[in-house]
Write a structure and sequence with these properties.
With 310 residues, the protein is mostly beta strands. Helices cover 2% and strands 39% of the residues.
């Protein structure tokens, strides 16, 4: 069998093939005479493990790992990297990529009943999130899958946008994590924040879902709104639980409003018209509020309370 390497004409008409540079370069295993690399001079395509490369570099492996990327070094920045580069126009005159251009992609084909064919079935796409300049290069990452019983029908299953927000079922997440659909988890961890209430306060800001520890220090304070629900800091159907953690002086009242009131971040309370705190004996009182939409306005609805009067 053939060993080493040699040029040969791909066409039977050798002289014509030679004139047209219709040649190929084959490299063979020195022991078994197996083709290990093939260079097609007509297309410039290189095949490793195949003599029919369909791209600039086509690697074929049967029953083994096709490629290993290894790097060695003694600094933290040394890595085994795959780097994509993308420009518009030509190699001799490149121009900036535009918004939504794919600048890199990991993609996968699976053999179907009669061939590969069609588009890739799954991919991770790296996209320009804006038209690039020397001072603006925003990007996003999209994870695409093909639903069962369909073909050539990739959909975006998850997006990481240019701010780091993650959307599952959403390509434009408005929070650190936005899920379109139901979420199942063994537990959720919510935050804890503290408010110090004094001097005639009428509005406070919720920084996120979870526990709010309130210290009442002085003054007559009537909370009419708690901001954060309407702005989206607290997402639809998320909750905050207010706990009176300390009391030294003054009064604190939460204002109840009618269901038809179109005031964003206002409260619809249950039971008594308001929850009042005016003494140290009321430390430990709690109220849980749900951020929701009532008659087109994002507001708070009380879902539970525990009033301590000891």
């Amino acid at each position: 069998g053939t060993k080493g390497w040699h040029w040969y004409a791909r066409s039977d008409a050798y002289s014509t093939a030679l004139e047209q540079n219709d040649l190929a370069l084959n490299f063979y295993d020195g022991t078994t005479a197996t083709n290990i690399m093939y260079v097609d001079s007509l297309t410039g395509n290189v095949g490793i493990g195949t003599t029919s490369p369909i791209a600039e570099l086509h690697i074929y492996a049967s029953g083994s790992t096709a490629m290993v990327n290894e790097s060695r070094g003694n600094t933290a920045t040394v890595s085994a990297s795959n780097i994509f580069r993308r420009a518009r126009d030509s190699a001799g005159s490149p121009s900036a990529v535009a918004a939504d251009d794919v600048i890199g992609r990991f993609a996968a084909y699976g053999y179907k009943a009669t061939g590969y064919g069609g588009t890739t079935q799954a991919s991770i796409d790296f996209l320009a999130d804006e038209s690039f300049t020397d001072t603006a290069t925003g990007t996003r990452i999209e994870f695409l899958t093909t639903p069962n019983t369909t073909t050539n029908n990739k959909v975006t299953a998850m997006t990481i946008d240019s701010t780091g927000f993650v959307g599952i079922g959403s390509t434009s997440p408005s929070q650190e994590l936005e899920v379109v659909g139901q979420v199942k988890a063994t537990s959720f961890i919510e935050g804890t924040e503290s408010w110090s209430v004094s001097g005639g306060v009428t509005s406070m800001a919720a920084g996120g879902p979870g526990i709010v520890l309130i210290t009442q220090t002085s003054g007559t304070n009537t909370l009419a709104t708690i901001t954060g629900c309407n702005s989206g800091t607290i997402a639809q159907n998320q909750k905050i639980t207010l706990i009176i953690a300390a009391y030294s002086a003054g009064t604190l009242t939460f204002t109840d409003t009618a269901a038809g009131t179109a005031t964003a971040d206002s409260m619809i309370l249950s039971g008594s018209t308001s929850l009042s705190v005016s003494a140290a004996t009321q430390v430990g009182s709690t109220m849980t509020l749900l951020c929701t939409t009532i008659a087109g306005t994002k507001r708070w609805v009380e879902i539970s309370r525990s009033t301590n009067t000891n």
